[in-house]
């Protein structure tokens, strides 16, 4: 189903050909995660929700693949947090940006940015460096998914705090992010919506405070989380090895 959604989005001009290749690489990692949400990913999702709720200017960056697979959940998140959505592409064309903005608007997004970028991300070449003053340029926290490592590293050097959704715990994006959710975007975004809803309810009831959320984010060790994700992959592969040996 995910492949069909991406192929349909490709045919409509929303996804670049390179995006199909990138999805295949991610799928391979999902196989060795056991195609489920790991415990460490659940923990990271809670911390990510806390980070986005305490952010002063959170922005959700959406590319073609992310829009094809999780546009509805991204829009829901943008209303819940609330956060701005900015279409930001590695392989940029004005036509593709317009189509992605329209797709997000059809899901209910308001004020989607990206069609008229007026700033550049420091350390990147045009046109993938383009961004908007009211979006990524001003953001303190940026939610990225299925993102290019060069841009993630550039944003981190620029002082941005980053929540990344990435199936590959070894990628530059995963390593450069402040909080990395090692999970499939089709599981991670709905899960993030639930976590944001849950924390907002707790804040309203007084069960947690903003200071509690700040402390949760401050204590997060992303390197340790990535190490745990790799260990879980190793354990999954070891179980697979034993299951095959058991069939002999």
Q: Taking Cα atoms only, what radius of gyration do you get, to the nearest Å?
A: 18 Å
| Protein structure class | alpha/beta
The largest sheet, given as strand count, sense and whether it forms a barrel, is: 5 strands, parallel
For the residues shown, what is the average pLDDT?
93
| Beta content | 5-15%
Terminal-residue CA separation = 34 Å
Order of the strands making up the biggest sheet:
2-1-5-6-7
What is the number of domains? 1
Q: Spans of 5+ residues with little confidence (pLDDT < 50)? A: none
Briefly note the CATH topology name.
Rossmann fold
Basic shape? globular
What's the CATH H-level homologous superfamily?
Phosphopantoate/pantothenate synthetase
Helix-strand string: HHHEHEHEEHEHEHEHHH
In the CATH hierarchy, what is the architecture at level 2? 3-Layer(aba) Sandwich
Q: What helical percentage do the residues reach?
A: 55-70%
- The CATH class, by name, is Alpha Beta
Instruction: Count the DSSP helices.
Output: 11
Write down how many β-strands occur, each being a DSSP E stretch of 2 or more residues: 7
How are the secondary structure elements laid out?
Layout: H1 2-11, H2 17-32, H3 39-54, E1 58-62, H4 64-80, E2 84-87, H5 94-106, E3 119-120, E4 130-131, H6 133-137, E5 141-145, H7 149-157, E6 161-165, H8 172-176, E7 179-181, H9 185-205, H10 210-219, H11 222-246
Parallel strand pairs: 1-2, 1-5, 5-6, 6-7
Antiparallel strand pairs: 3-4
Helix pairs in contact: 1-4, 3-9, 3-10, 4-5, 4-9
